[in-house]
Amino acid sequence: MAALAWVMMGLAIWHFAIFVPDRFWGGIVGGLIFAIIGAVLVGLVLSGFSVPGNDTITVLSAIEAIPGALLGLAAAYAIGARRGNPPLHL
What we know:
- By secondary structure, the chain is mainly α.
- It has one domain (2-12, 23-82).
- The chain contains 4 helices and no strands.
- The chain has helices at residues 2-14, 27-46, 59-63, 66-82.
- α1 runs antiparallel to α2 and α2 (27-46) packs across α4 (66-82).
- The longest helix is centred in the middle third of the chain and has 20 residues, at 27-46.
- The protein is elongated, with a radius of gyration of 14 Å.
């Protein structure tokens, strides 16, 4: 159940990507994938490489995915900016 919380937190943090220019590697979908992968990886690391079940999940289980989502978005942005993706101007 904690894996679902981590994925949903990564998705929630990804929604704030609209406030920065779209230079993510793979576009906005690449940012989504990186945010979710980062949230799940950091959630796994902080929980000792085991996914907590229904009995042990708390609000902190979801909050611990926030740094991973931010790191994932930063990684996607850095890769995209380094590859020279121009920001989209609509």
